[in-house]
Recover the amino acids of this structure.
C-alpha cells in the first residue's frame, strides 16, 4: 500500500507556471506507476498525465500536451507535474493516483491523494 500527498497548488495568473508534487508519506512509490487527474467544479474527474514506474514512459491528455511535463524521482519517493502556460480552463483540483499498471481511467487506479487546488486567473 501507499499513501499519497499532493502539494504545490495555488493561485497563478494565466500564462504562469506551477509545479505540483506527489509524495508517498507511507509505502514505496517506485513500486507503482503514477497518474495525475483533475476535477473542475461541476465536471467529472479527467486524466491529465501518467508515468511508468521507472519514468521511461510518459503520456499526456491532448489538452495539456506541450505545456505540462510529468517526471519522477524515486529516490525522493516523489512524482512531479510541471505546468507551464497555464490557462483558466486548467483550474481544478489536481489529484495524484497510483497503481501497479496505470491507465487513463479513474477506475484503473488503486490509491489516491486528497488533491491540491490550482487556480489560473484570467
Amino acid at each position: 500500500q501507499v499513501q499519497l500527498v499532493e502539494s504545490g497548488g495555488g493561485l497563478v495568473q494565466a500564462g504562469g507556471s506551477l509545479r505540483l508534487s506527489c509524495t508517498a508519506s507511507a509505502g514505496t512509490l517506485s513500486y507503482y506507476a503514477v497518474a495525475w487527474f483533475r476535477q473542475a467544479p461541476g465536471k467529472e474527474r479527467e486524466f491529465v498525465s501518467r508515468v511508468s514506474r521507472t519514468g521511461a514512459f510518459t503520456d499526456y491528455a491532448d489538452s495539456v500536451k506541450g505545456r505540462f511535463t510529468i517526471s519522477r524521482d524515486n529516490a525522493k519517493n516523489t512524482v512531479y507535474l510541471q505546468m507551464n502556460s497555464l490557462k483558466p480552463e486548467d483550474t481544478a483540483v489536481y489529484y495524484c493516483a497510483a497503481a501497479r499498471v496505470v491507465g487513463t481511467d479513474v477506475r484503473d487506479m488503486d490509491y489516491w491523494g486528497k488533491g491540491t487546488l490550482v487556480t489560473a486567473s484570467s
